[in-house]
Design a protein that fits this description.
The protein has about 110 residues and is an alpha+beta fold. It has three helices and four strands; from the N terminus they run ααββαββ. A hairpin with a 4-residue loop joins strand 3 and strand 4.
Length: about 110
């Protein structure tokens, strides 16, 4: 499972552009983080919402993939984000967790 997720993550151009790293992989849970740098910050110096969105979407997708057969892939069908506080500090971390693994849709949160 970890190898499959790691290999897929390594092919993600967006994650490479964001200098993101895969921090943890376990069944139903994936952690991804990226540095908060000026290139990915908004005008007040906080992490841009797009960084939060990209990390959250990717972490949730790979969390879902930990619950699928090896010959299956996943794509996002729908996503919503609530930004409760500004992204501050040196790194932004997204934790994707599977809430309900269905046959066709896997509901996740991050």
């Amino acid at each position: 499972m970890k190898t499959r997720i790691s290999e897929g993550f390594a092919k993600q151009g967006m994650m490479a552009t964001l200098n993101a790293q895969l921090d943890a992989v376990e069944k139903g849970r994936v952690e991804i983080s990226a540095p908060i740098v000026p290139e990915f910050a908004q005008q007040q110096g906080h992490a841009h919402a797009a960084l939060s969105f990209a990390l959250g979407d990717t972490a949730a997708g790979y969390a879902a993939m930990t619950c699928t057969p090896l010959d299956h892939e996943v794509v996002t069908a729908e996503i919503k984000i609530n930004l409760l506080a500004p992204g501050r500090g040196n790194r932004l971390k997204a934790i994707g967790r599977v809430l309900k693994p269905g046959r066709r849709l896997i509901c996740c949160c991050g």
